[in-house]
Amino acid sequence: MPNPQLYIIDYQLHGEPRNFIIRLDRLDNAEAWHWASCDAGIGIIPKFGREKIKKVSRPMAERYGITEVRWRVSGDKPQSTHQAPDSGSLAGTPG
């Protein structure tokens, strides 16, 4: 029996950051792009779990202004796009 988990999906819509939480059995990048498009009002949300719908692909979502789709399991820390400098190395100190 599948064990649904909570996932957080972060994305940008026309440059504005957005995020939401969704409960699914599994999530991958293609699913994340589809659900981000649903949150943005572009994709179709199936009425029944087994209903077959055409999913929104990354190229199609990008045409509507969706970018930077990232996802993680709820409770995990978000990954920053900027890396912090290594605390062990100090600039300007002799080696």
The average pLDDT is 83
- Order the strands across the largest sheet as they lie in space: 2-1-3
**Number of structural units classed as domains:** 1
Question: Structural class, from secondary structure content?
Answer: alpha+beta
The residue fraction in helices comes out at 10-25%
Taking the sheet with the most strands, its summary is: 3 strands, antiparallel
| Parts with pLDDT < 50 across at least 5 consecutive residues | 82-95
How many beta-strand segments? Answer: 3
Q: How would the global form be characterised?
A: flat
Count of discrete alpha- or pi-helical segments spanning 4 or more residues: 2
Rg on CA atoms, Å: 18 Å
Strand content: 25-35%
**SSE order:** EEHHE
From the N-terminal CA to the C-terminal CA, the straight-line distance is 57 Å
